[in-house]
């Protein structure tokens, strides 16, 4: 029983020490942000982070639009190439057909 009480006292002392440490950290944090300049710099930092996030989203949207335009251009060029190839074959067949000796 005495050992359990001793163990309990040690646990209470450890907990008390941890609570003191947490209180000290909270106090240090509050003191660090008491000055208005620090508060303003934190607000500026938050605004900057928000602006960077917004810029990233805009850039990502623009990249998606550019990729879509590239795909449309590629599809259009492929269709035109197919059309030119078809015209070339048609003209070649006409030229080859005219140069054949005609039988009478």
TrEMBL record:
Residues 2-95 form the Ska2 N-terminal domain. Residues 49-79 form a coiled coil. Keywords: Coiled coil. Gene3D superfamilies: 6.10.250.1380. InterPro entries: Ska2_N. It holds the Pfam family SKA2. This is Ska2 N-terminal domain-containing protein. The lineage of its organism: Eukaryota, Metazoa, Ecdysozoa, Arthropoda, Hexapoda.
């Amino acid at each position: 029983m005495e050992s359990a009480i001793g163990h309990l006292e040690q646990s209470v002392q450890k907990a008390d020490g941890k609570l003191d440490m947490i209180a000290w950290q909270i106090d240090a944090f509050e003191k660090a942000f008491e000055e208005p300049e620090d508060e303003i710099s934190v607000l500026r930092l938050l605004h900057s982070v928000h602006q960077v996030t917004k810029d990233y989203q805009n850039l990502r949207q623009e990249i998606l639009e550019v990729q879509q335009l590239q795909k449309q251009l590629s599809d259009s060029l492929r269709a035109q190439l197919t059309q030119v190839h078809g015209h070339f074959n048609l003209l070649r067949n006409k030229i080859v057909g005219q140069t054949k000796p005609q039988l009478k």
